[in-house]
Amino acid sequence: PMIELYVMSFCPYGVQMEEVMAPVIGLLKDSIDLRVRYIASVEGDSIATAQSMHGSSEAVEDVRQLCIAKYASGSYWNYLAAFNTQCYPVWNNAERLAACQQEVTTRLGINGDTIDRCTAGQEGLELLRADETMVGTRRVTSSPTLIINGQVYSGARTPDAIKQAICGQFDVKPSACDIV
Known about the structure:
two-stranded antiparallel sheet, globular, about 180 residues
């Protein structure tokens, strides 16, 4: 199944949904095509022109997470878990946020220089523009929005309910669907 999770990195409900999704991803990661997409807009030709509901610093973190997904995909969900626990609570303090991002990236062995170049450059901007296009195509208006095989999920926000919804989309269910 194709799973799309639309979020904003500083959205409390998006953060909550990422935490709920983490065990589901742990179980089904080899059986699903998952894309986390970010809800933001790009007005110009630099990251400084990107905006999200919680401000431009949120759009920058959205791009940072897109770059981590591209260049350190094996650490992406670990980064989200650490970011959401440690950095999200200080998102409105730029100095503390930057220090936290650096600490988490370093601790997880993610190449900070590569991520910083991607985030600040055209590559990161293009990743965000691609998500902006998908947000428009899918008509997503809120964070979080979970889409499973093209259908917006509206069930309970629990790991088991989401797992069952995803597992219901398989022609042949993987054994992970039977794990409680």
